[in-house]
């Protein structure tokens, strides 16, 4: 803490704050966004100390908030995603549940919380779509790819009845081994567990969402359509995925530029 570096709060100065932030960045190897959060917290507390009369001037006033560059989302290849989807044991009810869950995450580009909150009546299996309640309680309808729908239907018909509790029935699509609705945290745990089994690093539910968007755009999907499927309020949020697949941009130039 900054207090450890200054013998009293009255000795706090911009130089000490800078040294503390440098320590966080170099010695503790915190990410830039974490260092920025530390500085924001120090600013608030310094203003409070200023209001108490402890300081005549704000020691953090002259410090510049670091600019945080927008990090490009990590999108695994289709081969890596397919390896992950194939990991759950097909001869176990929970394995088949997990396969359906993973397939739906990738096929629809869902957030973990969105998937956990899907009810049985949100699925329109005859139409091959699912109703999703996203951020800000905004509802959207997302098509389900045939392969994913097959796994979901098999889970509903054969495995979900074994997991459901008859004394406390739940309408949630995905249930735990005790019949309770799974949570967002459980979705994360399922993805991480199967990623570890497959020897895949840096995979979590949101990475499958990144893969969904990146693979659609790489296949030629319209940006506005992908925005709607993801439930992004602002197309600038979706736009970041156009910067991920650099190889496709090179292919476009090679194919269509008059002087490739």
Automatic annotation (TrEMBL):
GO terms for biological process: chromosome segregation; DNA integration; DNA recombination. Residues 71-254 form the Tyr recombinase domain. Keywords: Chromosome partition, DNA integration, DNA recombination, DNA-binding. Transmembrane segments: none annotated. InterPro entries: CB, DNA_brk_join_enz, Integrase-like_cat_sf, Integrase_catalytic, Integrase_recombinase_N, Tyrosine_recombinase_XerCD. The keyword DNA-binding applies. Signal peptide: none annotated. Residues 1-50 form the Core-binding (CB) domain. GO terms for molecular function: DNA binding. This is Tyrosine recombinase XerD. The gene is xerD.
